[in-house]
Amino acid sequence: MSVDLKNEPGPSRAKRKNSDPNLGNGESKCKAEENQQLMATSTEDSEEESVSKLGDYLNSQYEVLLRVLSSLPSFDLRRAAQVSKSWQTAANVIRESRFQFHWLFWQAINSGWNIPPPLAVYSSICEHVYSQPTLCVAFFTRRAIKSFKCSTSEIVCPVTKQNKCCGKLHPMESYLSLALGPKCDVLSFTVSGVIGSSLDLGSTFEVEHISKTQSMSAVLFPDLPGIKIVRFKMSKQELFTKCSSSELAKDLGIPSNMLIQALAVFTGHRVRENELSMLVAHLQARQEHRFAVAGGIGEKADGIEGLVFLGDDVAAVSLIIPETVTEKDTVVEHVAKIKSCNLPTERSMCFMFTCLGRGTMWYLGDCCVESTIINKMFPQAPVIGFFGRGEIGLNFLPNFPAQDSKSFWQDFKSICNDSKKSLEAPPKEVKRGEFYQIDHSYSTCLLYLSFNVTNSNLNF
Fold first, then answer.
1. What are the TM regions of this chain, as residue ranges (predicted)?
2. pLDDT at 313 exceeding the cut of 90
3. Looking at residue 16, what is its pLDDT?
4. What is the pTM of this model?
């Protein structure tokens, strides 16, 4: 029996032929790789061409571009504004039509964050904040305010501004400022415990000092039409050097033609009651129109800082729940006093400042008692605040008639216009002995704010 060796493949040819099931008959591996690269390049070119066509279409269809960009949160909207001039114009239109304030709450899980704290703060702001904030008020527990190591590339480093870990420690405020943008002023305050609301306003949280938990509660304010929020910070020495109410108002940046509607004060534990009383007396001396006052004492030693709410499109009331209140039913009766003031509830919020001695132990093991009652009575208002070393506040409960929101704001602006006449007169002289009962202990002070914002969303 003979064998034709010419027609029989040799060992090397047999090894090459169809050795890879993915290769064609006699096709080399090199040739297959070239084809795969060509296909990948073709796919990428096709995707880029599609994206380019979509971008060109959106540029030509301005109304469609507005609809697409209107679904983006503030962080993504800032990035989209860098694409082109037309996108920047559309982003500015959307940004200027958003007047909704936001609230955020974070808490560590099982004595440790489920994700790194900077990433938790950064991600929540990027996902949930739609209006461009110009002011952030954030209350941190002592463990949450500390510096954190730049150890994740998922967020931009506050120093290098790149998605690259530098390995250095950065304070939490730097990560907060990075996510909020350069136009947002951040007021951070260290406290014993924080109070906050869920994003859907379905529940409230009270993280007390005894839990030693890392947590944060914040409220973010955009520029609101007809409303001005002035942030101030001063020392006790600076307060005593002010010779007149007009001088103090000027230094704080308070416009001379706007009425003060509310004052929120955050101080150190070395600030005395007469010093806080002098601050309120000076501001009240510039106008006959009374304003609401509430605040708390944090972990800092010195310094006075806070917020002044001005304008005809914000109304406020303040309430003190005294230390004698220890039953839930009595708390309901006190919070109902705010309800009886008949302020509009569509766009409102409540600052809550309570003593670190209250909380779970005060109500015999029941947690979140007071914040839950506020939430049930005002389901549209987020509750933001903290547990402090003392409480600041005045009872200010004006009685407005029950009416619809539009009628309320018309009457309220009429009242404010009449009260503005007092701003033209010289401010009353404040005597050093003039005194407000403003400092409290084992109490809860509430500041309820209602905003008149009619154009809060794009009309698409």
1. none
2. yes
3. 40
4. 0.80
